[in-house]
Each structure stands twice: as structure tokens, then as C-alpha cells.
Specification:
By secondary structure, the chain is of the alpha+beta class. 22% of the residues are buried. The protein is elongated.
């Protein structure tokens, strides 16, 4: 509850009653939104196969995991078919010049890779019904697998993603005679222009064993162009839900600042979004962000993104 000096009336911060994530209190060491922008909620009561989407999983995992998984599947499939060829006997192939089991397996493994990719160098040929049936099945498997892999690669490359970086910490900084809650973001891509970028910041706090949410009024909620950095600023005045709260108050109420940023990406011609959050222990009191703008050698404007989190001490009002 706050007191408005101009109207001489008591005003209260506007609570958000339908955020979509419930009002149950989590453990004190659990955040609502993780650092990678995902909600920290575990879904139960439904089978794994109903809740799991392999396509969404494969286009959203890291490139290292994706390439490792593709390589693992490729090896396992060819090892499987190599064992099938090995079980048929050496008489089912022409061009294998050894009777050593391990050497035969190696030869048939590489024959499998050639069949799987439809390369077919021609040194080893299947002979008989058994080996031709297996190689035909593998050829079809290879064509379908390559088509799926190509689709997944295209999906990963074409998926619109907001490459926005955030300052490591949010700060409480002096601003025009009062204090303000601030954090800094920047567009990481040089060739991806974003326009009509909007920001929404919601304060989550525990009140009487329930999770409450309050919209924070921002100095600028929307900017037309987002090619560099943007310091998002919430002025802590009498109408702010942060007004009068200390570091201890934020800790005791397990405060977390939830952030949603969305904008139009000209490259993909689609809207993209990004989620993030700062907890009370990621908030630095009495600081201001340092300047990260400058001039390059050819006189162009320059922004040093590696310094986006740099701050300096400042006296609070």
C-alpha cells in the first residue's frame, strides 16, 4: 500500500491475477523462470510419449548434442546392419577377401555405410536373396533417414530465435532524484534487425504463503528499433510495488523479476520472443551501468557487448 501525495489518496500496485503459472509458492531456492528462459515446472500425470515431441526436442537442443546424436544414430544403424550382413556368411558377398571375423565385420560395416548413403563404390557386392533383401531395406532406411536429417537441419537453421543477451545482474540505481530498477539488454546479431520491441516486467513475490504478481510500469515499454542496447528502467516511486522495500524485504518475500521481450525480426519476417528473470540475490543495490558505446576506427558507432554487465558504484537517493 502506498500514498500518493498529489491526489492525497491511497493507491495500491496493480496485481496481475492471471499470469498462467499459478500462485503456489515454490521452494526458496527455486526460481520461476530459468536462465535459459524456460519455466521451472515439472509436468506429471501423463505418459512420456504423450508429452514428448521428438521434433521439438531435436530442433531445440544445442548443436553439440544434435550432431552427437546424429553421429551416434548413424554408427548404431550401420553396426546393426553390419551384424546382419555378418550373420549371412561370407558367401553372400563378392569382394570380401578375408575370412577373419573382425576384418569381415569391418568390410561389411563400410559396405553398410555405402549402402546407407547410396554411395556404392562397387568393390563389395551383395550376392543372393538374403544379402540383397537386407541391403534393399537399408537403402530405404538410409533414404528416409537422410530426408529426416535434412528436414531437421532446415528446421534448426530456419527457426526464428531472438538472440538477446542480458546483463548478468539487475541493479537499483539513482535516477532523476529517485531510485530505479534497471537491467540492460542488447541485440547480439549484427544482421538481424528487430523493430517494435516490447518489454514486460512482472514482480513475483510471496505474500501470506501465496505467490503474487505485479506489473512494473516502465519508463519506455516499447522501442521502434533495437539494433544496439537498451537499458530498461522502472522508476521506484510511490506507485511502484518495490517502493519502500529493502534488500531484506525482497529476500524475505522471495522476489523474482520476470521478463518477457518480444519484437518483429525483419530477417525471419516473424515475431520472436525471449524470457528471462532476476531473483533478489541477482540484484545489486547502489550501482549504475557503465557506458558501452564508442567509435570505431572508421568513425562508425560501436557497442562493446562484452561489457554489457559492467557497473560502477553509485549513491542511492
Amino acid at each position: 500500500m502506498t500514498f500518493n501525495k498529489k491526489s492525497r489518496k491511497i493507491s495500491m500496485p496493480k496485481e496481475v491475477t492471471d499470469l498462467g503459472i499459478g500462485n503456489k509458492v515454490l521452494d526458496s531456492d527455486q526460481r520461476i523462470v530459468t536462465k535459459d528462459g524456460k519455466f521451472n515446472i515439472e509436468r506429471r500425470g501423463i505418459s512420456f510419449f504423450k508429452s514428448f515431441s521428438i521434433y521439438h526436442y531435436l530442433i531445440s537442443i544445442s548443436w553439440l548434442k544434435f550432431c552427437s546424436l546424429i553421429l551416434l544414430v548413424y554408427l548404431l544403424v550401420n553396426i546393426f546392419f553390419a551384424f546382419l550382413y555378418l550373420a549371412g556368411g561370407v558367401e553372400n558377398f563378392e569382394g570380401i577377401e578375408t575370412n577373419n571375423t573382425f576384418d569381415r565385420f569391418v568390410n561389411e560395416f563400410f559396405f553398410s555405410t555405402q549402402t546407407f548413403t547410396t554411395v556404392g563404390y562397387g568393390r563389395i557386392n551383395p550376392v543372393g536373396v538374403y544379402s540383397n533383401i537386407i541391403s534393399s531395406i537399408e537403402s530405404l532406411t538410409g533414404l528416409l533417414s537422410l530426408a529426416l536429417a535434412t528436414g531437421l537441419l532446415y528446421g534448426r537453421f530456419s527457426r526464428p530465435v531472438a538472440k538477446i543477451i542480458y546483463s548478468d545482474n539487475a541493479i537499483i540505481a539513482p535516477f532523476n532524484g529517485v531510485n530505479a530498477f534497471q537491467f540492460r539488454i542488447a541485440n547480439m546479431k549484427n544482421d538481424h534487425d528487430m523493430i517494435d520491441v516490447e518489454t514486460e516486467v512482472i514482480l513475483s513475490k510471496e505474500v501470506n504463503n501465496l505467490r503474487k504478481f505485479f506489473n512494473l510500469k516502465l519508463e519506455y515499454r516499447k522501442i521502434n528499433f533495437f539494433n544496439a542496447s537498451w537499458t530498461i528502467n522502472h522508476i521506484i516511486n510511490e506507485e511502484s510495488p518495490v517502493y519502500g522495500l529493502s534488500e531484506k524485504d525482497l529476500k524475505d518475500s522471495d522476489c523474482e523479476f520476470l521478463i518477457l521481450i518480444k519484437g518483429y525480426d525483419n530477417t525471419f519476417a516473424q515475431y520472436v520472443n525471449s524470457r528471462y528473470s532476476y531473483r533478489y540475490d541477482e540484484l545489486i543495490w547502489g550501482a549504475r551501468f557503465t557506458n558501452i558505446y564508442g567509435r570505431s576506427e572508421d568513425g562508425r558507432g560501436m557497442i562493446e557487448l562484452d561489457k554489457i554487465s559492467l557497473i560502477e558504484k553509485a549513491e542511492l537517493n
